[in-house]
Amino acid sequence: MSAVVMPELDYPDDNGEPMSDNTLQFEWIVTLKGGLEAMFRDDPNVFVAGDLLWYPVEGQPKVRAAPDAMVAISRPKGYRGSYKQWEEGGVAPQVVFEVLSPGNRPAEMKLKHAFYEAHGVEEYYVYDPDRVTLAGYLRDRTGQFGEVPVMDGHVSPRLGIRFDLADELIVSSPGSGRFLTHLESVRQYESERAKLEALRAKLRAAGIDPDAV
Fold first, then answer.
1. Which pTM does this prediction carry?
2. pLDDT tens for residues 51-81?
3. Fewer beta carbons below 10 Å: N end or C end of the chain?
4. What is 23-151's CATH number?
C-alpha cells in the first residue's frame, strides 16, 4: 500500500499589502527598525526585522502577521523571507511595533492586538505619528496584555529603550542614543566629519602632521 503524500503548504513571503500608507508612517517604520538594528549591531543573537511576515503556527499559513518592526532575542541575524516560528526554536518575537496611518481601522488594530497577545509577544507598542500618541502593552502574569498607564518616560523591560513624548516621539537607548532618521544620521556624520577636518587643518597650520598624532 503506497504512502499518502500530503501537499506541501505554501507560506508566502509577501502578503500583497504595501509596507506603509504614507511617507510619515514609512519614515517612522524605517527609523524604528534602523535604530533597533544599530542598537543590537554587535549582538549576533538578536534578529530585527521590519514588515516581515511572521507565521507562528506550522501548518496554518493563513495565521500570520507582519509587524512594522519586531525584535526576536536569542535568534541569529541573517536573511529570512519570512519568520517561521517552528524554524526559530519556537521563539516568538518578544517585542513588536506598529506605526499607525489614517487608513488603520479600530477593528484591524483590535485583531492585531489579539494576535500578538495570543502568540507570545511580551511587549507591544503602537505609535500614531499624526496625533503623537503612543500606547504600550506588557504581558502580565495571567498571560494577557496590560496597558502601560503612562508611556512618557517608559523604559522597555526587554530592550531598555526609553520613550519620551514631546512634539514627536523620542526613542533612545543607553548605548546608541536617540533613534535618528536616515537624513539625521547623514547630517550627524557630515557634521562630525567637518569638525574632524577643521581639527586636522588647525594641526597642519601649526606645523603638526595630523596623521602622526
1. 0.84
2. 999 999 999 999 999 999 999 999 999 999 9
3. N
4. 3.90.1570.10
